[in-house]
Specification:
Elements (H helix, E strand, L loop, with lengths): L1 H10 L7 H21 L15 H6 L6 H37 L4 H19 L10 H54 L6 E7 L6 E8 L2 E8 L5 H4 L13 E7 L2
Antiparallel strand pairs: 1-2, 1-4, 2-3
Length: about 260
């Protein structure tokens, strides 16, 4: 009955705490029960085993309990529970390891050491004193191998992210260099370093259609001569705006950027 109860508990996904002690206790109780049954047999019993008796003798119960066979059946049942318990412990350690590395990837190797120690601690508590040949080495090796693979995959992802960040940083630096080169070319084309002030001057000889303008902007001088008739001559006389607008018909514009 105890084996069935343990199976039901494991089917619910639980780890049986202190399984080793419980198995040892059950073996001890089972041995005591067998001893009690054998002692209650009549003294003149021929100590026949169950398989050696006829059907009538089996019905009467005049036989010794075959201890090794009973123990082997119990051992097999508890061995199944023991292995399933190790798998439950391993799964719990893997979940803890996965959660830890998601929160702090850089400590992955340290977390794997923690999970391995946790597995050994819980597996030792599941290991009974009898039978003494049971072991958890295989399950521990599988757990270690799984964590190593996860660490390798994590490092590969980190390498890809680092290379992507380096590539992005290099592209940004290259763009800055190109912008600086373009700016230098523009300055060279304009004839010098850009200044923060601009100036312009214009002159129109009296009674003429000529207009002369000069300017200095962004490190480059410019002179322009144009022939523009006076559009206001019909309104303001023969000379139009070419007379009386400032001394000597001189126009001036000044633009300072501070």
């Amino acid at each position: 009955m105890i084996i069935k109860a343990m199976h039901e508990e494991q089917e619910e996904g639980n780890v049986i705490i202190d399984l080793g002690k419980k198995i040892d206790n059950e073996f001890e109780i089972l041995t005591q029960i067998i001893d009690v049954i054998n002692k209650q047999l009549p003294e003149d019993s021929d100590s026949s085993t169950f398989d050696e008796l006829s059907t009538d003798e089996k019905d009467e119960g005049n036989y010794n309990v075959e201890t090794p066979l009973i123990i082997e059946f119990a051992k097999f049942g508890f061995w199944q529970i023991f292995n399933k318990n190790l798998k439950r412990i391993s799964m719990a350690c893997v979940k803890k390891f996965q959660k830890d590395i998601e929160e702090e990837e850089i400590q992955a190797e340290f977390f794997s050491f923690q999970c391995d120690s946790l597995f050994v601690h819980e597996a030792e508590k599941s290991l009974p004193a009898y039978p003494s040949n049971w072991s958890y080495k295989e399950e521990r090796a599988e757990l270690r191998d799984l964590m190593v693979k996860k660490i390798i995959m994590l490092k590969q992802v980190q390498t890809v992210k680092l290379r992507a960040a380096e590539s992005q940083s290099y592209s940004f630096q290259l763009l800055q260099q190109q912008q600086a080169q373009l700016h230098a070319i523009q300055q060279q084309q304009y004839g010098g370093v850009s200044t923060n002030w601009n100036i312009g001057i214009a002159y129109r000889p009296p009674d003429s259609i000529f207009n002369i303008s000069a300017g200095y902007q962004q490190g480059k001088a410019n002179i322009q001569i144009s022939m523009v008739p006076d559009e206001q001559a019909s309104l303001l006389g023969a000379t139009g705006f070419t007379a009386g607008v400032g001394p000597g018909n001189l126009g001036l514009s000044l633009n300072l950027n501070i």
